[in-house]
Amino acid sequence: MHDRHKGWSALFAEKSATLSNYFLRRVSHRWDAQDLVQEVYLRLLRIEPSDAANIRNPEAYLFTVAANLVKEHAVMRQQLPLGSDGLEEVLEQWSTPCEAAAGVDRELRRQRLGTLIKKLSPKCRAVLVMHYRDELSYREIAEKLAISPNMVKKYIVKGLAACRQRMADYE
Amino acid sequence: MNKPGNFETRRRARRITEQAAAWYLEQQDNPSQRQQAAFLTWLRASPAHVAEYLAIAQMHGDMKAAAAIDTMSMMELAEQVRRETPVVAFPRVMPQAPDNKQAAGSRRYTVWRFAAAAALIVLGLFGAWRLWNPAEGAVQQRYATGQGDVREVNLPDGSLVHLAQNSVIDVHFDALARRIDVVRGNALFDVGKDPKRPMFVGVGGHVLQDIGTVFDVQRGADGDTLTVISGRVRVWKASDVWIGKIRAYVGDSQTSSDAVADLVAGQELRLSAAGTTGSIRAATIAKATEWMPTDIRFQHETIGQVARRFNAYTTTPLVIEDPQLAGLRISGVFHADNPESFVAYLATFPGVSVVRDRDRVRIVAASEVGRTAHR
């Protein structure tokens, strides 16, 4: 089961754009996304303390719960053939009919995000670009900017948060 | 979604977003079981946490593509950061900036600094060195190494500092000067050239002024040792250097009589904590650099960078004058105590010549040698 969590977690990271497209497209839709979060949250709350200790990878657990809920939801609405399994298929089902639109959304989102990055403070911008575009480690960035690796991490967090907040303004 | 009017709500939302981003990065760094438990607790604390975490995960998928849109080079980005870094707030001792209408920007700052320096003379505050101490918040960056840890630090001015284990240096650069304090341990400096901003290295009661140099500083309970590997270093008493700087501002040039000592390549000097110095003696470079790695390993580094790493070990530094060769990327391992093998390797490149001067080894394009000879 643990391996499967891991697999889903990786898949989620890779396909998260598609997953979110699923959420967004179904907004009347926003209700669904919020319902989903509520439901994920309730399931997290229902974990017994004794079981909580056994969850070695909460992130994978979270993604798995989310994927399962998406699937259950779809089944309930009879929009997905019964018996399908796993996040991949869920995503496959939901992204295929509208692949072209999904591509446009993604492109637009990336353009916006790119513009936001350029508007960040010089430090946040530098660490984000060096980390994501140039794939430098915290340490390598630290040396280039003459700050500590810890500060690099802090600036990445700050930069990501600023981007996320401003992206939310678009929603 | 975000009501601009509600500042408190926005602030709280921002904090959750930052926590989510921090947890997301933490997940990529092999979190410990304890961190994982804390993460689960955080998730369970609020549905807003769950929502935000999923949102960050989703945005993260777009980051690489979005960052790739930025066309600024890494150098430009770093330069922008450097320019943004606030200069050392020396004028703290000044009551007010002189009102000088034509002085704008950096010029105004120069005036401030001069006035501040002058004020220091008047007040007789020759312990000015202290004003720049970490306690005053003037430190821009501290680098430290732990037990068994040898580290190379590339500074934005092009200086390369090797740190031995258990060493600490404080680096502060501003528009007018570069300063590094060796707080503890052992550091070897290969100072980048910047004629506009002299480099001063603080060692207890002394200040070293670099004149295009590689040198080693070793701090110890029974005194400090300075070893010059190549180039020249001028040693000042900590308080004197300020007099010298102030004179320079006034237009009076520093005279060597103010300096405690001048050292050249291959020389060594003992410095006591009280600010006195021993006599200059011949150094054993191998001994001074014995803490340095015995191998020079490099992967996909430019020949110019690799040459500089060798220069930490030799009194006759390598200077790569052929820009094309200097920019070439190579990978390999050399014995650090044998720069000759690296020179021999460089000589194998087509169109490259080795010129041996008294105090350095120049690697030049062969065509350059020909041209010089014909002239």
Automatic annotation (TrEMBL), chain A:
GO biological process, one term: DNA-templated transcription initiation
Ranges for domain RNA polymerase sigma-70 region: 19-73
Family annotation (InterPro entries): RNA_pol_sigma-70-like, RNA_pol_sigma-70_dom, RNA_pol_sigma70_r2, RNA_pol_sigma70_r4_t2, RNA_pol_sigma_r2, RNA_pol_sigma_r3/r4-like, WH-like_DNA-bd_sf
Coiled coil among keywords: no
PANTHER family noted in UniProt: RNA POLYMERASE ECF-TYPE SIGMA FACTO (PTHR43133), RNA POLYMERASE SIGMA FACTOR FECI-RELATED (PTHR43133:SF63)
Organism: Dyella psychrodurans
Entry GO MF terms: DNA binding; sigma factor activity
Family recorded in the similarity comment: Belongs to the sigma-70 factor family. ECF subfamily.
This protein's record includes keyword Transcription: yes
UniProt name for this protein: RNA polymerase sigma factor
UniProt entry keywords in alphabetical sequence: Sigma factor, Transcription, Transcription regulation
Domain (RNA polymerase sigma factor 70 region 4 type): residue spans on this chain: 111-163
TrEMBL record, chain B:
Pfam families named among the record's database cross-references: DUF4880, FecR
Protein origin, superkingdom: Bacteria
Transmembrane segments: 111-132
Domain FecR N-terminal: 18-58
Gene Ontology MF term list: sigma factor antagonist activity
Domain FecR protein: 142-234
InterPro entries hit by this protein: FecR, FecR_N, Ferrdict_sens_TM
Keyword RNA-binding part of the UniProt annotation: no
Keyword flag 4Fe-4S: no
UniProt entry keywords in alphabetical sequence: Membrane, Transmembrane, Transmembrane helix
Entry protein name: DUF4880 domain-containing protein
Organism of derivation: Dyella psychrodurans
Biological classification of the source: Bacteria, Pseudomonadati, Pseudomonadota, Gammaproteobacteria, Lysobacterales
